[in-house]
Amino acid sequence: MKPVTNPKQLKDELFKTLSDILRHWWLMLAAGMLLIAVGVWVLYHPFQSYLTLSWVFAVGMIGVGALDIIFAWNNRHSKRWIWWLIAGIADIVVGTYLFNETLITIVFLPLIIGLWTFYKGFMAIGDTFHIRAYNFTNWRRLLFTAVVALLMASLILLCPVIGIENIFLFSGLAFLAAGL
After folding, report:
1. Which of 78, 111, 154, 180 is the residue whose CA sits 20 to 30 A from 17?
2. Is residue 62 classed as helix, strand or coil in its secondary structure?
């Protein structure tokens, strides 16, 4: 594809790209709402079975992965669609493995949640800089929630004892931040 240098062409290309992405906005909203729902569930049911949390986490990963793949497919004309596709496939593969390997999930749940939330936080930071490049004023909100997700993930990863004791609180907050 030939680079666009004419300001009018650049503006038209920008609005076409944005309209293609925004046409399927509801898929990203659905993924965010799923993450928020999982986060609220974890916060309101902190003493539910640890096994249940591992299954809910795995199912949440699979659901978010499926929505990411649908979003990527619907936005395959965007330059970033491949990253959403890779993220979706990775979420489904890891979520399926964790769902089928319950013992591993239970033993390593704080580490898994911390790493996954870290990964989602970095993806959100990448999206923030992409949005910022188009001079949108609300990019700071996304950056803030991405940083909060990274901080929650850091707490889980850097303080495993605290992470194990407060896995429900940190996990719920991390899911909420990633969903927002």
Report:
1. 180
2. helix
Stretch 118-124: mean pLDDT, rounded? 86
User: What Cα–Cα distance (Å) separates residue 34 from each residue in 3, 63, 84, 150?
Assistant: 38, 8, 17, 19
- Per DSSP, the chain holds a count of helices (H) and strands (E) of 8, 0
Q: pTM to 2 decimals?
A: 0.61
In degrees, rounded to 5, the angle at the alpha carbon of residue 51 between the alpha carbons of residues 45 and 55 is: 85
Q: Which tokens is 133 given?
A: 């490049």
Rounded to 5°, the CA angle 12-88-50 comes to 140
CB 102 within 8 A of CB 62: no
User: How far is it, in rounded angstroms, from Cα 174 to Cα 180?
Assistant: 10
Phi-psi group of 135: left, alpha or beta (phi > 0 → left; psi -120 to 50 → alpha; rest → beta): left
pLDDT (tens digit per residue) in 92-115:
999 999 899 888 877 787 788 888
